[in-house]
Design brief:
three-stranded antiparallel sheet; hpI Integrase, Chain A; 2 domains; Double Stranded RNA Binding Domain; about 290 residues; alpha+beta
Length: about 290
Amino acid sequence: MLARNPCRIKGAGDETPEERPVLTLAQVFELAELLGRHPVGNIREMPSGEFQLRYRLVEGGTRAFPQYLPDRQAAERVLWNLAVEGCAAVEHDDRYRALVLLATFASLRWGEAVALTRRDIDLGAGAVSVRRQYLELDSGDLVIGPPKSRAGKRTVSFPAGIVPLIREHLRAHVPDDASVLVFAGPNGGVLRRGNFRRASRWALAVETIGLPNLHFHDLRHTGNTLAAQSGASLRDLMDRMGHDSVRAAMIYQHATSEAGRAIADALDNKIKTERGGDDDEGDGGLGGVLVPVA
């Protein structure tokens, strides 16, 4: 085991929420459902160098797309969109749904999520125990070690609303063995980030929800932001995020405070509009309002 990350790059992994997108709850669940969808079709290169697309209809049978596409990537995008619109049939590998939900609502890093074993999930308590993480070196080798910081070993509660989905994932995809990985790669091995992106159709899915530059770490960032917006204390945020330092947690609290100020300012503008602007009688804007008289 490694005591620290040997491939740490200065600045990598820093919590800078102002630079990262925050998903809405609707986007989180939409992404969870989109990942692993594989539209059923056939893409063939023609003598002209263009590509022909045929796809299976939802109601059965096949259909050819009415025009040739300039390259395979364009054909794959058209096929994906046909599936999203409900025209093309889909085969769905739903093993990535729970990964998205836990990464978001338990604020997990990639390496922490793929290192989870069945014993780390407590459905009764609605909690996950983070004990270790996998690191993928530049050489491609995988090593296992402790979480990023001393506070990284932690137990994180997740919403009761996702418990049924986590339970279904364990039932359908995880053997009844406490030591097996919850989110395994092919043949039960460690799930690698690159394989996940390809198998889950990550690029097409995040484009569909309107966030084409979304990274997996943004799910953790979204979870941290939601926790801060819930009114969590600085100490609670630090525990949930697995940080020794208060700096990252304070960034989230500050961002939430700024959002609250923006909401208040917007409400103030509405009030001013309703009241016809500032009163110029020097009474603090209370002109025309009845107040108790001593």
